[in-house]
Design brief:
Elements: H1 15-46, H2 63-92, E1 99-106, E2 109-113, E3 119-121, E4 123-127, E5 131-138, E6 143-147, E7 152-156, E8 162-167, E9 172-178, E10 190-196, H3 198-206, H4 214-224, H5 227-230, E11 249-251, E12 257-259, H6 262-270, H7 293-305
Parallel strand pairs: 1-5, 4-10
Antiparallel strand pairs: 1-2, 2-3, 5-8, 6-7, 6-9, 9-10, 11-12
Bound molecules: copper (II) ion.
Copper (II) ion binds at residues 105, 143, 178, 180, 182, 186, 189.
Length: 323
């Protein structure tokens, strides 16, 4: 009859670790606050004016005491640091085999795009016991993607990809929120995450007709926008070949080396001058305004599907660019 949960379910692999940090910090703060409060009251009463407490033998200096209250908090703080750092790395290091789903936020809804082609609004279907990585961007202002039961929250920014990952541990339906004030209907910007057993998830994916896998749609766009005339598979074009570029180190004209991740691919389409590949002239025009955020996701998914051995997985069923 008292359905008044103080905490959301712990429904992901990292939920326990995040809660442990939370309870540890709350516990430590409570302990010290209560200890200080106790001594304030204790001394105020004991040494109040007129009491006949013993006031001789006042300690003015004690090295032992000073060491004690310096070293103990130092060790506590370092301990908290180690535990928090572990939780932080767990949160921000996605496993390499994660299923990748693209998210676009806009005033005021969330759109999810699955690699197999399904998309959905204000809902996110995911399989249980499988790592899922979200690659997110916004079409307008800053939003923030938050699933309390999974203890994950990540800002979603226009003109940039951010990502977060989780592995759900229990089938069920969980709240999804925008947690960055983003305008009039911010409070309405949410929905649900539906965690399903793998078989049910596969069934859900196969539902609906006319779904074009993301990478396949990206390939069509790659042809249509003429990217292919410069970025040829045999590397004979005016631009570098993009086959196998994803995940590789790229040598830049500036002397820097960077890893080609989703954000690098996205930026190079929208702002090609930002990072010029060594040995190539800066002749690529910007595609800003010519490709939607969805289109960018498709092209990025396509580029990721181009394997170094010349094989491409675009359109292949279960891989869907996730590997
Ligand atoms: Cu929002």
């Amino acid at each position: 009859m008292w359905d008044f949960p103080l905490f959301p379910d712990q429904a992901s692999t990292i939920a326990g670790g995040v809660d442990a940090v939370y309870f540890l910090l709350t516990g430590l703060s409570l302990f010290f606050a209560l200890t200080v409060l106790f001594f304030i009251l204790f001394f105020a009463i004991r040494y109040r004016r007129g009491s006949n407490a013993d006031r001789s033998g006042i300690v003015l200096e004690s090295r032992k005491l000073e060491l004690f209250w310096s070293v103990v908090p130092l060790l506590l703080a370092l301990g908290v640091f180690v535990i928090q750092a572990k939780a932080y790395f767990d949160l921000y290091r996605p496993p390499v085999n994660a299923l990748e789903i693209y998210i676009v936020g806009r005033q005021w809804m969330w759109k999810a795009q699955h690699p197999e082609g399904q998309d959905e609004i204000n809902q996110l279907h995911v399989p249980v016991n499988r790592p899922v990585r979200l690659i997110m961007t916004s079409q307008d202002v800053i939003h923030s993607f938050y699933i309390p039961a999974f203890r994950v929250k990540q800002d979603v920014l226009p003109g940039r990809y951010t990502s977060i990952w989780f592995e759900a541990t229990q089938p069920g339906t969980y709240h999804l929120f925008c947690t960055e004030y983003c305008g009039t209907d911010h409070a309405e910007m949410g929905g649900s995450v539906i965690v399903m057993p793998e078989a049910e998830y596969q069934q859900w994916l196969s539902g609906g007709t006319g779904n074009v896998p993301l990478a396949q749609a990206g390939e069509a766009l790659f042809q249509q926008l003429g990217c292919v005339t410069c970025h040829q598979a045999d590397n004979e074009g005016r631009g570098p070949t993009l086959v196998g570029v994803f995940g590789q180190e790229v040598q830049l004209e500036s002397g820097q080396t960077i890893t080609a991740d989703e954000e690098y691919l996205r930026e190079s389409i929208i702002n090609p001058r930002a990072k010029i590949v060594a040995g190539y002239p800066a002749i690529m025009p910007t595609y800003q305004g010519q490709i939607s955020d969805e289109g960018l996701q498709q092209i990025v998914a396509y580029l990721k599907s181009l394997q170094a051995d010349g094989e491409q997985q675009a359109g292949s069923e279960s891989n869907g660019g996730a590997q």
